[in-house]
Write a structure and sequence with these properties.
- Mean pLDDT is 87; it is low at 238-249.
- A 6-stranded mixed beta sheet has the order 3-4-5-2-1-6. A 5-stranded mixed beta sheet has the order 8-9-7-10-11, sandwiched between helices.
- The protein is flat.
- The chain folds into 3 domains: 5-103, Gyrase A, domain 2; 126-203 and 362-422, Up-down Bundle (Four Helix Bundle (Hemerythrin (Met), subunit A)), CATH 1.20.120; 211-355, 3-Layer(aba) Sandwich (Rossmann fold), CATH 3.40.50.300.
- Helix 6 packs antiparallel against helix 7 (183-202), helix 6 (148-172) packs antiparallel against helix 14 (391-406) and helix 13 (364-385) packs antiparallel against helix 14 (391-406).
- With 429 residues, the protein is α/β, with parallel strands linked by helices.
- Strand 8 (252-258) and strand 9 form a beta hairpin.
- The chain has helices spanning 27-35, 85-97, 107-114, 120-131, 135-145, 148-172, 183-202, 204-212, 226-234, 277-292, 321-324, 340-355, 364-385, 391-406, 415-422, and strands at 5-8, 17-23, 45-50, 56-65, 76-82, 101-102, 214-219, 252-258, 261-267, 295-299, 315-317.
Length: 429
C-alpha cells in the first residue's frame, strides 16, 4: 500500500503563512484527526488544529482534494498555518505520530508523474520553473511544463508510427491488398520528421543558454578598462582596478539579468605577451574563456588591440573615452558612465536575436536523444532507397528512432534520469 506523505511546501524560517502538504490514501483521515470535521473537497475551511492529546496547535485554513483530482493524482490536503517554526514543527510532529512519513525531495511530483498527471519533460519544466531567476527562464520553463516538447514528440511519433506501419505492411502482406507503392508517403513522412528534428537541434543551443545563462567576456589589452567596466555593470567593486598592467590575473565573474536573460559577465586578464609566469596563466585562461563565451566585448582605447578572437555579433568599443576624447556610438567610459547603457542594450539585442529561434530542447539529454533519432532516420532513408530487400532494416531504424524520441517524455528509460531530476526539488514539491 502506498505511504501517506507530508512535507512543508514553503521555505523554512519565520513567515506569515506556511503551507504543509499531505498526499496518499490516508490524507483525509490524517486531516480529520487534526481538525475534526472536514471541509468539502476544494473548499477552504478555517479549523482549529489539535494533537492526539487535544492540545491546540494552531488555527489554520485547510483544503482537501479527492483521489484523482489533485496534483499527485491521490487524495491530498494542504494546511495553511501560521509560519512560526514552532507551529510548523508541532503540526509535522502530529502528522508523524499518525504514521505519516516526511516526503523525499520531489516525491509529490514523482507521484504526479507516476499517476499520469505529468510526463518526464513536463517534470523537467517544473524543475526549471522552480529554479528560474529571469523572465526568459520562467517563460521557457512554463512552455515546457505546459507540454511544449511533449507536443513535438507526439507529432514526430505519430508520423514515424505511420511510416513504420506502411513499411511493415509491405513486408508482412506483400501478397495482400496493400498500396502498390507506399514509398513516396513513407519518404515524405520520414523526411518531414528529419527536417523538424534538424530545426529543433539548431535551436537547442539557444534554449540551453536561456536555461543555463549566457557568457559575455570583456577582453582587451592591459589597462583598457575591463575591470572598471565590470564594476560599473555590477554596481559594486567586484574587481580590483589599478593602473598597474596585469592587475587582473584570473577570470572574475559577475551574474546579471540583461533584458530578461541570465548573463555572466567575465573580466579577463589583459591580452599581451608576458614573461611573468603567473600572468601568463591568466592570459591563457582569458583566451580560453573568451573563445568559449557567447559574446566578446573588446575594449580598445588606443585602436591597436588584437582582433583575432572576435566573431560575428561581438562588440568593439573605444574605452577610456573620458581620457582619449573618443566620441560616437562606440565610445565608452566606465568611470563616467558614457556608453554603458548603450552597451547593455547592444548585448541584450544580440542575445534576443539568438534566442528567437530557441527550440523546446533545453537539456543535453534532449539533444542526445534527438541526435540519435536523427541518425536512425537517416539510416532508414538509406535503407528505403535500396528497395524491398532492405525494408526490414528500414523498419528497425524507424522503431529505434521512435524509441529514442519516446524517451524524451519518459515513455521508456525514464528511471535513469528521474533520481537526478527529483534531487533538485524541495521536500514539498
Amino acid at each position: 500500500m502506498t505511504d501517506t506523505i507530508y512535507a512543508p511546501a514553503t521555505a523554512p524560517g519565520v513567515s506569515a503563512v506556511a503551507v504543509i502538504r499531505i498526499s496518499g490514501p490516508g490524507a483525509d483521515a490524517a486531516l480529520a484527526a487534526l481538525c475534526g470535521t472536514l471541509p468539502a473537497p476544494r473548499k477552504t475551511g478555517l479549523r482549529r488544529l489539535r494533537d492526539a492529546d487535544g492540545a491546540v496547535l494552531d488555527e489554520a485554513l485547510v483544503i482537501r482534494f479527492e483521489d484523482g483530482a489533485s496534483f499527485t493524482g491521490e487524495a491530498s490536503a494542504e494546511i495553511q498555518c501560521h509560519g512560526g517554526r514552532a507551529v510548523v514543527s508541532a503540526i509535522q510532529s502530529a502528522l508523524s505520530a499518525q504514521g505519516l512519513r516526511l516526503a523525499e525531495p520531489g516525491e509529490f511530483t514523482r507521484r504526479a508523474m507516476e499517476a499520469g498527471r505529468m510526463d518526464l519533460s513536463e517534470v523537467e519544466g517544473l524543475a526549471d520553473l522552480v529554479a528560474s531567476e529571469t523572465d526568459a527562464q520562467r517563460r521557457q520553463a512554463l512552455a515546457q511544463m505546459g507540454g511544449g516538447l511533449t507536443r513535438d514528440v507526439e507529432t514526430w511519433r505519430r508520423d514515424l508510427i505511420r511510416a513504420r506501419a506502411l513499411v511493415e505492411a509491405v513486408i508482412d502482406f506483400a501478397d495482400e491488398e496493400v498500396p502498390e507503392d507506399v514509398g513516396p508517403e513513407v519518404q515524405g513522412l520520414v523526411s518531414g520528421v528529419i527536417g523538424s528534428l534538424e530545426t529543433a537541434l539548431k535551436g537547442a543551443r539557444a534554449a540551453e543558454r536561456v536555461r543555463d545563462g549566457f557568457e559575455v567576456a570583456l577582453i582587451g589589452p592591459p589597462n583598457a578598462g575591463k575591470s572598471t567596466l565590470l564594476n560599473a555593470l555590477a554596481g559594486r567593486e567586484a574587481a580590483i582596478t589599478s593602473e598597474i598592467a596585469g592587475t587582473t590575473r584570473d577570470v572574475i565573474e559577475v551574474a546579471m539579468d540583461i533584458d530578461g536573460l541570465a548573463v555572466t559577465v567575465l573580466d579577463t586578464a589583459g591580452l599581451r605577451d608576458t614573461a611573468d609566469p603567473v600572468e601568463a596563466i591568466g592570459v591563457d585562461r582569458a583566451r580560453k574563456r573568451a573563445e568559449a563565451a557567447d559574446i566578446r566585448v573588446l575594449l580598445d582605447p588606443w585602436g591597436d588591440a588584437d582582433r583575432g578572437l572576435l566573431r560575428d555579433g561581438d562588440v568593439i568599443l573605444r574605452s577610456r573615452a573620458d581620457e582619449t576624447g573618443a566620441t560616437g556610438p562606440d565610445a565608452l567610459s566606465a568611470r563616467t558612465g558614457q556608453g554603458v547603457s548603450a552597451l547593455l542594450d547592444r548585448i541584450g539585442a544580440e542575445l534576443q536575436t539568438r534566442v528567437a529561434g530557441a527550440s523546446a530542447l533545453t537539456r543535453a539529454r534532449h539533444v542526445e536523444a534527438v541526435r540519435a533519432a536523427h541518425t536512425h532516420l537517416e539510416k532508414a532513408v538509406g535503407a528505403l532507397s535500396r528497395g524491398e530487400d532492405a525494408l526490414d532494416i528500414a523498419a528497425e531504424d524507424l522503431r529505434a528512432a521512435t524509441h529514442r524520441l519516446e524517451a524524451l517524455i519518459g515513455r521508456v528509460d525514464a528511471e535513469r534520469v528521474l533520481d537526478d531530476i527529483f534531487s533538485t526539488f524541495c521536500l514539498g514539491k
